[in-house]
Amino acid sequence: xxxxxxxxxxxxxxxxxxxxxNPVWWYPWSDEAFERARTERKPIFLSIGYATxxxxxxxxxxxxxxxxxxxxxxxxxxxxxxxxxxxxxxxQVYMTALxxxxxxxxxxxxxxxxxxxxxxxxxxxxxxxxxxxxxxQIASTWTRNPRPAIELGDALHDRLxxxxxxxxxxxxxxxxxxQNFLEQAWTRxxxxxxxxxxxxxxxxxxxxxxxxxxxxxxxxxxxxxxxxTTLEKMARGGIYDHLGGGFARYATDERWLVPHFEKMLxxxxxxxxxxxxxxxxxxxxxxxxxxxxxxxxxLEVMTRPGGGFYSAEDADSEGEEGKFYVWHRPELxxxxxxxxxxxxxxxxxxxxxxxxxxxxxxxxxxRHDWEIKRHPLVQEAHRTLGAARACRVRxxxxxxxxxxxxxxxxxxMARGYNVLGDPRYLEAARDAARFIERTLYADGLLLRRYRxxxxxxxxxxxxxxxxxxxxLDLHESDFDPHWARWxxxxxxxxxxxxxxxxxxxxxxxxDRARSLIVRTKDYTDGATPNPNGCSALNLLRLARLFRDxxxxxxxxxxxxxxxxxxxxxPSFFAHLLLAADFHLEPVREVVLVLPPSLEGDALPxxxxxxxxxxxxxxxxxLVVSLGTLHADTDPERSPLPILADKVVENQQPTLYVCDGxxxxxxxxxxxxxxxxxGS
Length: 679
Hints:
Elements: H1 14-17, E1 26-27, H2 31-40, E2 44-49, H3 54-64, H4 67-76, E3 78-83, H5 88-100, E4 109-113, E5 119-123, H6 128-144, H7 147-163, H8 176-188, H9 205-218, H10 221-236, E6 250-251, E7 259-260, E8 263-264, H11 265-282, H12 285-301, E9 312-313, E10 316-317, E11 320-321, H13 329-335, H14 338-348, H15 376-390, E12 397-398, E13 401-402, H16 403-420, H17 423-439, E14 441-442, E15 445-451, E16 454-458, H18 461-478, H19 481-498, H20 531-546, H21 549-559, H22 564-568, H23 574-584, E17 588-594, H24 605-615, E18 622-628, H25 641-644, E19 654-659, E20 662-663
Parallel strand pairs: 1-3, 2-3, 17-18
Antiparallel strand pairs: 2-4, 4-5, 6-7, 8-9, 9-12, 10-11, 13-15, 14-15, 15-16, 17-19, 19-20
């Protein structure tokens, strides 16, 4: 074995490269590190974080750049650094261990484990003096007698195996679940500021989207009130970037005023979905503007040349959290004409005292409606301050491309095109899908991450589930059957790699992940869509497109996974209930078949007008397909099964509409009939 040294210099992860010059002898997550720990019989010091994590930067400066800390680590431990965004499966295992030890989760995550990867100590951020004390105690104890630590690791491993899949299966899906969810949400709802619970506040996108569906079912005004209050308060607050668009990861306070400034691709994807759906329900221009500005931010800042979306932007710039985003009042007074300055202070709550360490986070004050942003003086302020901010040092951009998060943004861009009609969004979605297929799909398997010419790490469940969803949404935007066929191929691969054949549902990691001490399976909500909930909805949609009842049976098995927990605590399972809503409600199938004479041409105006009208209302149980019927020698271009039993009448576009099990007569009149019952 080669002499120990810092092994991160050849990695591609921006997070690992941030630590390549540390005096710590870091290894990436690798067999080489595991073998050294076993050979030298040393405990493993595991540090998990990500490139745009503020407290990861703090711990790096205080401890990992410190010679005394490094000497202790290098002498007594094998040190491994993991980018949680490259290895979400590793992160989940050890986050579960952290929480099983009674500690709150977060990053940086600090874990000490035996050479066979069984954790016996875990925490998050530790100040340097505390970390030195912990390391010294563990090193002394391990040197004298490692047996207690090994026994604790064994006991915790047994507990992790029990926690890895705590769901019994056999649950039932029924309409009462949605009323239970509504009542639980109403109990926790912050009626003044929106959102659920107190600080810190994370955007509750899945809950809001489910509440929109509950409102559609029941007409209960509370559901829509919770959505409107939360979306308006978030968009008015400092968590939203009023100059550049896009949302920060969460708010540190209950009012959505002070954000943790990092911007994550996944948040901006799921928030875009939510604002678009709320716009379809309410018609409020504010929601369309927020969605548009968020997508435009992604196009301008987070889209790589040639396709694909970057992962995140940091909270820090020049070593200070939020420095890129905040303003001091004297600075604004210098930059803006007098009238513009006074209007800016009034509209965006600028004071001499500030609201963030003496500086000001811009937020829309209570006395102004959203429409004030269209005032000429406010527009001039936006132009001037945007130009001034462009001259600042921008936060670090984590420029790796993650398959999973790109799947979410492909969905957002495709849906943005459908609702807002901007073709740039459709092109961005297509470019990203083509990029992933070209660079992150090899030998029938997805890879997790691309950066700087390097594609690496086997895909996890979320990579498959989110990309399949993105491809299905893209297919409903441009109707290219290739996206649907690729989605179906990926679903078959996902089933082979991740499915729990005994109890249904999907594990987070594949059966090929040999270095994980447990395989976890989860149905509960997190910052990103729950992959099992996402998969259930994917299966239901694929079942319609491909006329495959087995896929619907697979979906119902996933939905039953949480068992009684789903009945008792539906608020934990919003993503799963989104799929349950699709399953229980009559699905509206809209199929438009075109004559061969239209192949290769732009869609006729009446067809485009029909699609525009089709996409205006909020219709969550909608499956749409459009295609040209002719004998095609290319199987990739041949009609999908949903089209296969349709015919074109009189060489004119022919519309087929089914509501549940009730189908209307085919027609050349391109307008939708009223929805009928599903029985």
